[in-house]
Design goal:
Elements lengths: L8 E5 L4 H13 L3 E5 L7 E5 L4 E6 L2 E5 L4 E4 L7 E2 L6 H16 L7 E3 L2 H7 L2 H10 L7 E4 L2 H7 L4 E5 L4 E4 L2 E4 L3 E3 L6 H4 L4 E5 L5 E8 L2 E8 L18 E5 L3 H13 L4 E9 L2 E8 L14 H10 L1
Parallel strand pairs: 1-2, 1-6, 6-8, 7-11
Antiparallel strand pairs: 3-4, 4-5, 9-14, 10-13, 10-14, 11-12, 15-16, 15-18, 16-17, 18-19
Length: about 325
């Protein structure tokens, strides 16, 4: 909070969220009262919610605050925790984790607030097959895609190499190691019934000679960059490339493609989205959208994403 005034902006974030830090700095500079609650610290507060008020009182490290009719809520979290722990959690730890996540979703009682983004919209927008269907509706080109655990379906659909990725974001733990799944280009003969039947995968047409674009949409504002290595596009998943070898070059989409991005976000009932596109000789293709995507590393003088979000929250 910047002062003792009732919070106008409610920020639901985590302790190590650089993007939230950047936006809050803009809110403070503008004198906009806010309250930030971090997921890891919720149990250190004493919080009471009256769903019919709606009203929330908070006492703890951030002081004592009453939240009633905030103008906006910034929900900086996926709807479900994808951190599938390989460690055994105590009963108390399991209960605490599940109930605090449910508590964050219960902030939906602030129905008059503007949300970036509402949990219900985030839940639906996180579905990769649903995203593709909506992107196709608004006029984006989309690669041939199927969700399956049937290797025969893949063999019948993809004659050459294909892109394989998880149906949902995966973060796994084993012993002291973390595992995150990336998009992989495979030959069709590298897949078999034994290695895909246990869980569905997303199989997708490989787009060759490509350049990746990351498009960040904040309401009606569109910020686009090309992701490059040595001034060229990157084959495969660019996230595997060491960050110090990547450059992000601002680019201008066509008016039609900008409108498609805005319309996609609107139809998904979002106020913010990070959209991944790919361009090659065949045109511009939609790959996926992340309703809670990261953007702090993209901020520049010509890409004031933090200021755009702060302005939207403060309206």
């Amino acid at each position: 909070m910047t002062d003792g005034r009732r919070p106008e902006v409610l920020v639901l974030s985590n302790l190590y969220d650089l993007a939230a830090d950047m936006v809050i700095a803009k809110l403070e500079a503008a004198g906009v009262p806010y309250l930030r609650l971090n997921r890891q610290a919720l149990a250190h507060h004493r919080i009471t919610v009256d769903p019919l008020g709606p009203l929330m009182t908070v006492k703890g490290p951030v002081g004592r605050h009453v939240v009633r009719n905030p103008s906006s809520v910034w929900y900086r979290a996926p709807v479900f925790d994808r951190d599938v722990s390989g460690m055994r959690l105590s009963v108390d730890e399991q209960l605490s984790r599940s109930q605090w996540m449910a508590f964050l979703r219960s902030m939906s009682v602030f129905r008059q607030a503007r949300w970036m983004n509402h949990p219900s919209a985030t839940y639906l927008a996180e579905s990769k097959p649903y995203q593709l269907a909506v992107a196709d509706d608004v006029g984006f080109k989309t690669p041939r895609t199927m969700v399956t655990n049937d290797v025969r379906s893949i063999e019948a659909t993809f004659p050459d190499n294909l892109v394989v990725k998880s149906l949902d974001t995966v973060l796994l733990h084993e012993d002291m190691h973390d595992f995150f799944t990336y998009t992989t280009v495979l030959g069709r003969d590298q897949l078999s019934d034994s290695n895909i039947s246990s869980a569905p995968i997303t199989a997708q047409q490989e787009l060759k000679n490509k350049t990746d674009l990351r498009v960040t949409v904040v309401s009606d504002q569109v910020f686009a960059v090309r992701v490059l290595k040595n001034q060229r596009g990157i084959e495969g998943d660019w996230r595997i490339t060491p960050k110090d070898q990547l450059t992000y070059a601002s680019c201008q989409l066509t008016l039609a493609d900008e409108d498609r991005c805005r319309e996609l976000v609107r139809r998904l009932k979002l106020a913010f989205a990070a959209i991944d596109l790919v361009e090659n000789d065949e045109g511009l293709f939609f790959i996926e959208v992340n309703p809670t995507g990261e953007w702090s590393w993209l901020v520049a003088d010509d890409r004031p994403i933090d200021a755009a979000i702060a302005s939207w929250l403060a309206e």
